[in-house]
């Protein structure tokens, strides 16, 4: 069957993302998860949705306003997508509030009470008044709105109370708002035998007469504002860092995309806010519950061991310990793969720290896309530069919502003598590479680290990612070429092992897919396994469709967005798509090709990557695709990590051809959870044991 030309062969990108966020929210109703973890999932789903509106919905609204009618790959105009997104988002918001109501009831059963206005007794009120006057009143700025007091600017994610008041002695009506600084704790803990919490907006309402004496409250509502927070950089900007500093200031004044209010708000106050914020009623969300649900994560500190996941301790690779912590000696002996978060990210930090301290190291080259506020890697790079080593840091300023932190780090490193570059104006540098050059026996020897995730010690505790260390000469030479390309636009004539987007990766992936088709047509076995965050690219999807029609068996683990429709008879019925959503955020990118044999096989081609299969990753970012040729590492990734992920039936969702996801755990009496397996399997949890030293038992696939 020839591939259909209709746009119906694709699922909509934005609606697929909303489906992913519904899966995240569903984890807040999964009774297999402890209570505080379910609250955390609720918070994540709310925060995700806010960011989605700031960027994706804002972009579509901008297209609608500009009269753009060009259609998405699935055949929808910007306006059609905008309307569908709003419909689905309102349903999602309603479900979030329903979940919150259920979680409040469960909190009460665990002696944690979130009190309403009328549940505060006199003793509690007396204590709260003292706290309010000393800790909160000085930080609040009530603003009356009249000709002498114009409506204030409300920043992105601005949160506050809007109200209508009547002056007691003459009946004069006043409209006012009280912006609530987001730095304030959302939940105030009232001393007592049980945990009693009061929301900050309820506290303000409780003592409103202290803020507006001699006024009577007529009506009020809390509200939150979401603004357009995407940014565009003019290509002719001479100094990229300065350009970004200016843009970040503009971001805070973006167009309002969504206003959320309580559904009890009066029509007069709703009209007042809409007029002052210059939005229409279609951009207002009326909700029955509390606003800014992402703040519910603050509740997770009121916990006991029964309300959270059992703590586990990441293992440190035993082989490095055998060399007394000498990363270079361990890597020189054999390539190392580290599986985060089950294995500690400290090994990556130690690699950079050792390079900074080692007098034989002459140069360090490092990409930084995202890192923590107190980054030990940045500190190590600064230390290395201060010791006279040649240090180059490629900092990506366009890492969305981390730009300010990256600018700050760039300035600090420049002061220490680090050679800081910002990559390309047209391309984001998303590759994760550390290159260390060391003088050994009067010769230079290179060590390289490739990662599927960021150099971020905090997210490395909750993201599943891979770190690959090697001294392979070809890979090290390619890493050096990559840095030359990033710092000097020196595009290499050829690459030995690596494939780089936007130069060769797309071509390589399609070539590998076509090769599986060739095997299948010759009567051999054609098979592809791939794991990533998102699958959007239409050219790659079409190649997968053609491969399916040629008999290639394709198993995809796509955590988030998937625009491919699996399971269409005669078209994509050899393609199986699942999503794993659980305790950890699945983030590693792995792709495996059978190479004429049934997967897993020692002759299979295995790659790890920094890239998802999206146009932005393949065409507009600098990314890496790294071949795994060391037999031990090859086996670990293919026969252990990929098989375990494919075997998972406890946290997995199956995608059907209509874009619907169904939790598959109900189909199995024997549950297998990949996350729990890597944490708890006895062969992995002994002291010093790690994935590098232990072979998992064979797992029979049933997919």
Which structural class is indicated by helix and strand composition?
A: alpha/beta
CATH homologous superfamily heading of the largest domain? Polyphosphate kinase middle domain
Radius of gyration: 27 Å
CATH level 3 topology of the largest domain? polyphosphate kinase like
Shape: globular
User: Segments where pLDDT lies below 50 for 5+ residues?
Assistant: 682-691
| Average residue pLDDT | 89
- CATH architecture heading of the largest domain: 2-Layer Sandwich
Beta-strand portion reads 15-25%
Number of strands: 27
Number of helices: 20
As for the number of domains, it is: 3
CATH hierarchy class name of the largest domain? Alpha Beta
End-to-end span in angstroms?
24 Å
Helical content (DSSP H or I, runs of 4+): 25-40%
**Largest sheet composition:** 10 strands, mixed
Multimeric organization: single chain
What does this molecule look like?
By secondary structure, this protein is α/β, with parallel strands linked by helices. It has three domains: 218 residues, polyphosphate kinase like, CATH 3.30.1840; 180 residues, Endonuclease Chain A (Endonuclease, Chain A); 186 residues, Endonuclease, Chain A (2-Layer Sandwich). It contains 20 helices and 27 strands. The strands form four sheets. Strands 14, 18, 19, 20, 21, 23, 24, 25, 26 and 27 form a ten-stranded mixed β-sheet that branches. Strands 10, 11, 12, 13, 15, 16, 17 and 22 form an eight-stranded mixed β-sheet that branches. Strands 2-4-3-7-8-9 form a six-stranded mixed β-sheet, with helices on both faces. The protein starts with 12 loop residues before the first helix and ends in an 18-residue tail after the last helix.
């Amino acid at each position: 069957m020839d591939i259909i030309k209709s746009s119906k062969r694709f699922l909509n990108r934005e609606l697929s993302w909303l489906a992913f966020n519904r899966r995240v929210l569903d984890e807040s109703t999964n009774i297999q998860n402890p209570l505080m973890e379910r609250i955390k999932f609720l918070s994540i789903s709310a925060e995700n949705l806010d960011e989605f509106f700031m960027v994706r919905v804002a972009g579509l609204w901008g297209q609608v306003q500009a009269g753009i009618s060009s259609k998405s790959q699935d055949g929808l105009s910007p306006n059609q997508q905008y309307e569908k997104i709003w419909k689905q988002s309102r349903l999602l918001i309603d479900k979030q509030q329903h979940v919150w109501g259920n979680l409040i009831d469960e909190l009460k059963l665990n002696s944690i009470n979130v009190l309403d206005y009328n549940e505060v007794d006199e003793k509690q009120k007396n204590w709260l008044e003292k706290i309010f006057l000393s800790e909160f009143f000085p930080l609040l700025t009530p603003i009356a709105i009249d000709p002498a007091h114009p409506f204030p600017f409300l920043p992105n994610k601005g949160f506050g109370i809007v109200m209508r008041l009547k002056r007691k002695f003459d009946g004069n009506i006043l409209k006012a708002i009280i912006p609530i600084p987001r730095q304030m704790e959302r939940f105030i803990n009232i001393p007592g035998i049980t945990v009693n919490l009061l929301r900050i907006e309820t506290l303000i309402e409780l003592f409103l007469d202290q803020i507006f004496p001699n006024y009577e409250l007529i009506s009020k509502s809390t509200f939150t504002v979401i603004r357009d927070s995407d940014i565009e950089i003019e290509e002719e900007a001479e100094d990229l860092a300065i350009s970004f500093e200016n843009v970040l200031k503009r971001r805070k004044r973006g167009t309002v995309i969504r206003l959320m209010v309580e559904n009890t708000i009066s029509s007069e106050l709703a009209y007042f806010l809409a007029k002052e914020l210059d939005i229409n009623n279609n951009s207002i969300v009326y909700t029955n519950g509390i606003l800014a649900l992402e703040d519910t994560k603050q509740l997770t500190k009121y916990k006991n061991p029964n309300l959270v996941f059992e703590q586990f301790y990441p293992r440190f690779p035993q082989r490095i310990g055998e060399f007394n912590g000498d990363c270079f000696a361990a890597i020189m002996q054999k390539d190392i793969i580290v599986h985060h978060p089950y294995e500690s990210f400290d090994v990556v930090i130690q690699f950079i720290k050792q390079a900074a301290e080692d007098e034989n190291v002459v140069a360090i080259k490092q990409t930084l896309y995202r890192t923590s506020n107190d980054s030990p890697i940045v500190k190590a790079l600064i230390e290395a530069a201060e010791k006279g080593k040649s240090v180059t840091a490629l900092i990506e300023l366009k890492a969305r919502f981390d730009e300010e932190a990256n600018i700050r780090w760039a300035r600090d490193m420049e002061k220490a003598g680090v050679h800081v570059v910002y990559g390309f104006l047209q391309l984001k540098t998303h590759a994760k590479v550390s290159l260390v050059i060391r003088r050994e026996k009067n010769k230079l020897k290179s060590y390289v680290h490739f990662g599927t995730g960021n150099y971020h010690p905090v997210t490395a505790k909750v993201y599943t990612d891979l770190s690959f260390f090697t001294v392979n000469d070809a890979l090290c030479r390619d890493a050096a070429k990559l840095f030359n390309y990033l710092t000097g636009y020196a595009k290499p004539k050829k690459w030995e092992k690596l494939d780089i987007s936007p130069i060769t990766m797309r071509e390589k992936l399609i070539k590998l897919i076509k090769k599986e088709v060739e095997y299948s047509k010759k009567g051999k076995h054609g098979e592809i396994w791939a794991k990533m965050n998102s699958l959007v690219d239409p050219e790659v999807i079409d190649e997968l469709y053609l491969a399916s029609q040629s008999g290639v068996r394709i198993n995809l683990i796509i955590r988030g967005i998937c625009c491919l429709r699996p399971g269409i008879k005669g078209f994509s019925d050899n393609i199986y798509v699942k999503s794993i959503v659980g305790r950890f955020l699945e983030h590693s990118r792995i792709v495996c090709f059978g190479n004429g044999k049934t997967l897993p096989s020692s002759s299979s081609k295995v790659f790890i990557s920094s890239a998802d299969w999206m146009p932005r990753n393949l065409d507009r970012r600098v990314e890496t695709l790294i071949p795994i040729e060391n037999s031990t590492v090859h086996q670990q990734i293919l026969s252990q990590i990929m098989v375990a992920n494919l075997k998972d039936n406890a946290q997995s969702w199956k995608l059907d051809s209509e874009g619907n996801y169904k939790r598959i755990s109900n189909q199995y009496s024997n549950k297998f959870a990949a996350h729990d397996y890597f944490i708890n399997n006895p062969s992995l949890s002994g002291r010093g044991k790690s994935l590098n030293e232990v072979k998992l038992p064979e797992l029979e696939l049933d997919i």
